[in-house]
Each structure stands twice: as structure tokens, then as C-alpha cells.
Design a protein that fits this description.
By secondary structure, the chain is of the alpha+beta class. The chain has helices spanning 4-18, 61-74, 125-130, 135-145, 151-171, and strands spanning 23-33, 36-45, 50-51, 88-94, 99-104.
Length: 172
């Protein structure tokens, strides 16, 4: 694919193709780190309620994968190539084809599945709980974000937490 503008156009085409008739705005949120990524669509109806794919209305996985691949490619284009490239994104396409993308650089240690566009440590305790971030993992990320601990102490705490999880799992 060519430049960023061509990538935007293809992303818009893919989002438009998966939009159900009730969608006022299609939204695709995701993150990407070397070795793993996550992303997926939902939509906002005219009344402001959120729609999601279901068993009856199947998510077009090829289109989802296509958008994620295009976002990886976009990260290799100017002006996105930098020392601090985007890692999170939110794409919106309205029913009248207005397209927008927001980008964020969230360090990997502040990322968590289904948490998009903000560091885990910036969540409130209730937000973290609602997003299924274990309390200990949220708290250590909050302490890192607030500068109470450094990266080395964070890494040691994460290793301890993961070791405790592996020990519990082995005992089952």
C-alpha cells in the first residue's frame, strides 16, 4: 500500500463494509506492540447506545484483521515513524463517511487487554475493576505511572505477581 492517505482510505472502506444499517458511527479501537496486538469494532447508534457483533450478526474477522494489518503498516509511514510511535488508536467513521483517527503512545507496561487509549495506571479503581484488571496489577501500574516506583521495581513486582499466579495454577 502507498502512503498514509491510501491506508486511511482502505481502512474507511473496510469499516464501511462491516457497518450494520443502524450504525451512526463505526468505531474501531486497538493497540499494537511487537509480538501482540488487539483491536475490534463496535458502533454507536443514533440514540447513543452501543452495538456489538453477536452470534447472529457475525464479526467480519477478515476485515478486522485487515484493519489491524493496515494500522501496523501505517506505523511505518511518515509522520508516524519516530522514537515514540503510536501504540493505541481509535478510528471513527460516521454514516456520512467522515473519518477520524486518534493516536496515543502508551508504554507496553501500561497496557492491558480491552483497555484502549489510556494507561492502566490512570484508571480509577472502579474503572480497572470494570475492565477486569486484577487489583494488584492495576495498583503496581498506578504506582509506576505516579513515579512512586521505577521500571526495575515494577518489573520485579510483575515477576512476583506472575510467579504467584503460576504457583496457584500449578496447585489446581
Amino acid at each position: 500500500m502507498g502512503d498514509a492517505k491510501e491506508i486511511y482510505s482502505e481502512i474507511g472502506r473496510l469499516l464501511s463494509s462491516m457497518a450494520p444499517p443502524e450504525a451512526a458511527v463505526m468505531v474501531f479501537m486497538g493497540f499494537q506492540y511487537v509480538g501482540h496486538d488487539q483491536g475490534g469494532p463496535h458502533w454507536i447508534r443514533e440514540d447513543g447506545s452501543i452495538g456489538r457483533f453477536t452470534r447472529e450478526l457475525r464479526m467480519p474477522l477478515n476485515d478486522v484483521d485487515g484493519i489491524k494489518e493496515l494500522m501496523w503498516e501505517l506505523g511505518t509511514k511518515e509522520p508516524f515513524v519516530s522514537d515514540e510511535p503510536f501504540t493505541h488508536y481509535k478510528i471513527e467513521l460516521t454514516h456520512d463517511m467522515k473519518f477520524s483517527i486518534d493516536f496515543a503512545h502508551i508504554p507496553e507496561e501500561q497496557s492491558w487487554p480491552n483497555v484502549f487509549m489510556k494507561p492502566v495506571g490512570s484508571l480509577t479503581e472502579d474503572e480497572a475493576k470494570a475492565l477486569f484488571v486484577p487489583h494488584d496489577h492495576w495498583l503496581i501500574r498506578k504506582r509506576l505511572l505516579e513515579g512512586e516506583i521505577g521500571k526495575d521495581e515494577f518489573d520485579a513486582e510483575i515477576t512476583r505477581l506472575e510467579g504467584a499466579f503460576d504457583t496457584r495454577r500449578a496447585a489446581q
